[in-house]
Amino acid sequence: MIDVVLLENYTNQLKAEAALSHLPFDQWQAVLQEAANWGLLSQDPQSSRFLRLQPTLPYFLRSRLTATPESPSTPPTVPPPSAGEVRRGFSAAIHAAFRRHYDSIGGALGQLITSRDPQERQLGLNLIHIEYENLLTTIHLGLAAKVAISNPYHCVDRYLELTQAHHKGIELGLSLLKTLETIPAAELSNALRFDLLRISGDVGRRQRTVQAYADSAATYLRTLTFIDGFSEETEKQKGLWKATIYHELGIVAQEQRQWGEAEGYYRQALDLKIEFNDRYSQASTYHQLGIVAQAQRQWAQARDYLMQDLTISAEFNDVHGLGITLRNLAGLWQAGEDADLPAAVAAVMGVPAAAVIAQFEKTVQDDAA
User: Residue 50: in which H helix or E strand, if any?
Assistant: First the structure.
């Protein structure tokens, strides 16, 4: 796929490479037209800005690259490069230019697909669908060059998530992890370590989504081992990353109704969040601990955890979190007949206990409907 609108930007990246700077880039349009005349290019039916390549064109271009290219003249006193050296230089230069070009595109598309504007998100989704293969190529070129791949990977990851292509995402993630883990530790920059951490976490999440629980737990446990390799991050940041992974391991165990194991992982997550004073994220872990206790009919413990969750959510005015927790507390109130619970909730929310009871009753009725 060729984006005609961004062709000038790509050309500038090519010109920036010394091995390519002498080439006649002013002939682009003539080259594209000739390729179209030969049936090697065609306009995309959905957008005039894109040209689709026939499979034979990339094959032809690669075969041309293996031929001995014309190189700029060299002084007689300097031995000319061998044909192989020239070919490798051309190939490396093209790959570097392509990678920089699509890294920039990946950054822009990443902003679109995570936009709060639904139309921008849809545009981002459509463009990533068109540019998917180019973004994948950029990821592989980045790994080969041992540079960060966060921009193109973010686009591909969000696209796979929104299209619910979970198995495809797992396959891709495992392939990327296999490549990343072949890079010697001394050659892994912090940026690449972050990519490794993120990809591993994404694989674990997708494995849980498809209920491959043993694989998911194994992936998350392996992810924990990557964190201590960061040399430029604070102990707090590394501790909070570990807390996130322990929380995810708790969810994996909880979905299998392994209550004791789930509680153990959640407690490890909570301990780290408390140690490093991440007050806001403590709410989600207190919430999950409450759900685990509630599932085991441990009403008093469930109340304590959920009230902690409610208190923190109220502190941060987390309306969404408050709604979820109040619904769980309503169920707890109904199941445990805890007469003091509405008053405790009212004290946190700053409303009359009667209003809490009325809300609980309505929630119970709605859930029963």
Answer: strand 50-53
